[in-house]
Amino acid sequence: MQQIKTALLSYGMSGKVFHAPFLTLHPGFELLGAWERSKHLIQQDYPQVKSYASLEELLADDVDLVVVNTPVDTHFEYAKKVLEAGKHALVEKAFTTTAAEAQELNELAKSKNLKLTVYQNRRWDSDLKTVKSVLDQELLGDIVEAEIRFDRYNPNLSPKAWKEGTNAGAGVLKDLGPHIIDQALYLFGYPEAVSADIRTLRENSQVDDNFDILLYYADKRVRLHAGFFNREMLPAYILQGRKGSFFKLRGDVQEDTLKTGAKPNIDDWGTEEPGMQGILNTEINGEVVRKTIPTLKGNYYNLFDGIYRSITDDTVEPVTAEDGYRTMTIIDAAIASSRQKRVITL
């Protein structure tokens, strides 16, 4: 099996929790090491790998794929250097800070015949996979309204300075926003227009921490919300169709499981906790049916497998740079709409 030699641009939480476990589990990847600036931690977990002292040292090595898992405002600079060095790239969300940056990276990757993937792991969440299955089965009829939420209760400021500062990548819109915007585009396609209300609610916060975005389609409206003042769990997905409705709580367990140090090869990987199933209320064969829908298993491994196949078989990336660009156009439009208090036509 061909080996894709891979390096990380950091080994903090994302490198340790979201990337290294899958890169070392998948037989098609070889984890070479990580660029570490101050703390040198990767060799404690993987003694055989390297700790690079600089980006230049990493790019000079025999690396095929580089994971750009640094703060958002560095993504464009680092991803551009990675592509210019002739390496494939996997870039975390938010892909960039603007749509223009995303488009430049997309064009650069194409010009060099390199694979450029956006790390949208939540397409492989158990809840989104279940929502997609309900839609694919056309159980609700034509969708007329939908809502996707990412709720948390955390009124305190984050200790991570890059999340709370005035840099271009800070704020909930570019933190949680890329997840649910990508999910909306994945489920429903690209909208015709966008309106948004982006707010700052936490005391002493310098960044946006609450948003409502409305996506306008010819035949439906899709609402997106994220914020930090929701103690009670609300449905993360609300789908309203001409035949019926489907509600689903956000119940994917993969992030929490990974944070315990568990490896993603256990038998019940991605299995949701009991009681989190979605509720379907619809008409089937002329009869109104209300029932729970079993939740599909989540599996981030499939994202990495898709990346592997895109490189070795020259197939389309599992999440393309064009996908990342389209998400950034929605973010740019949302910012403009909130500032100008108007609907932005795309």
Automatic annotation (TrEMBL):
Residues 132-346 form the Gfo/Idh/MocA-like oxidoreductase C-terminal domain. Gene3D superfamilies: Dihydrodipicolinate Reductase, domain 2 (3.30.360.10), NAD(P)-binding Rossmann-like Domain (3.40.50.720). It comes from the Bacteria. The keyword Oxidoreductase applies. InterPro entries: Gfo/Idh/MocA-like_OxRdtase_C (IPR004104), Gfo/Idh/MocA-like_OxRdtase_N (IPR000683), Gfo/Idh/MocA_oxidoreduct (IPR051317), NAD(P)-bd_dom_sf (IPR036291). Keywords: Oxidoreductase. SUPFAM superfamilies: NAD(P)-binding Rossmann-fold domains. GO terms for molecular function: nucleotide binding; oxidoreductase activity. Residues 7-119 form the Gfo/Idh/MocA-like oxidoreductase N-terminal domain. The keyword Chloroplast does not apply. PANTHER family: CONSERVED EXPRESSED OXIDOREDUCTASE (EUROFUNG), CONSERVED EXPRESSED OXIDOREDUCTASE (EUROFUNG)-RELATED. Belongs to the Gfo/Idh/MocA family. This is Oxidoreductase. It comes from Flavobacterium subsaxonicum WB 4.1-42 = DSM 21790.
